[in-house]
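HUMAN: Mind sharing a backbone?

ASSISTANT:
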Amino acid sequence: MKNRYFFLFTIISILSYQSVFAQKEIAPHWTRDLIIYEINPYAFTSPNGAGEGSGSGNFKSLEAKLPYLEELGINGIWLAGYCNATNHFCGIKSVYACIRPDEFDPDLGTGEEFKSMIDEAHGRGIKVFLDVITHGVLNESPLILKHPDWFKGESWRMKDFDYDNKEFREWWIDVWVDYSLNYGVDGYRLDGPNGFESSSKVLGIWDEIFNQCLAQGDTILIWPETCRYHFSQWDIRTDKSNIMREFDNVPRYRCHQISCHDHGMEKSKGNHYAVQGSRGKFIYKLFGFNIPIFMSGEEFDADQVSLPDQEKNLFGGGGEGYWLYGSWIQWEQLKKDKHLDMLNDVKKIIRIKKENSDLIHYDRSQTNIVSLTTYPRLGKIPYARFIPGQKAILIITNPSDKEQAKNLNCTIEFPLSAVKMDDYDHFYVTDLWNDSTSVVRKEELLEFEINVPADFQKEGGFRILKIEPKE
């Protein structure tokens, strides 16, 4: 009898584990084509103008900017600011200095204005994700006085939540279920999880949040910073020359953060965006197999301008700060050709990606990819996304640096056998950027010569070729 109970307990435990694991695989269907754009709403717009109005962005001014984001082509906003918060970090107000996650920051607007902004985003095909501070709240939060038993430990000079407290857990679940079901929030980026509690304990409560939303027909997306749920913000954080090193037997979705908002924190003056006008770097990541995340302003090679009150040190002082999160977007820069050219190129790159979403998507379970051999060898290994026997899209980037940018002539060995097209003698080769098509013989494609224009200039830095068999 004892052995029978042990057997049943073991089976139930295995099924429970599989159920939780499967749940974390239930990402919304639209995750497949996500392009995530991070916004600090305080710095994204300045409806009150410069000077004292610097960083006066709010829900209404963000809503007014949504037509621009729709035209850009992104379909997900990481909203890093919405709740009651202070300037606890680096002298500027941020979501990470949370007072109460269940109250809107009055400087940003009301719940009605927040809902209006989300409804408008949804009408334009854009999802909205909130940044959740999982570890705790500022020491002056009224939650601490009202519910002292909800807290234990301390980190970042803030009080940490006690995830073992039943009353806290019920409140926490209600907060985020309410944001999704009553305001239409599509998912959550979880800061950390870090602080006093373990990541596993913090994530465990998100199973219940996920399930309650799911029971109401709402499948939300959950992506922690430092560990996995549907994917992790830190899945891919470094540039690798061989993209195939990142394509391994891991869960269905991963992401690649192009610029991290923590760049520049406690650093000296400079531009801490990652792309800085490189079309090649942008398309290499966008057309890969990881969900891209990039910072607002990156699409037009924005100069980094700090919010006036930003300070270098984490808790203030140290002179002027250059935390990328506090980059004050200067929309006037789009009057200059350098910035407008970059914006137009990025728009076109995203449009081409969407027009070829049967190949260029982020579902690893449906992805076929192969790296390409070139002569001479390139710093960024070219690759091809393909549907076996039907078509392939090749991505070739020019690795030249900004100071010595020049055109590149190279030869590509297109692997017909690997993409299951070696039974054909002729192929259509379409330059997707220039929308021109030619017929190429098999022998030519095996050693295909190509010119890639210099990077850091209008329409430069890459070539995109579509290969299809000619029947």
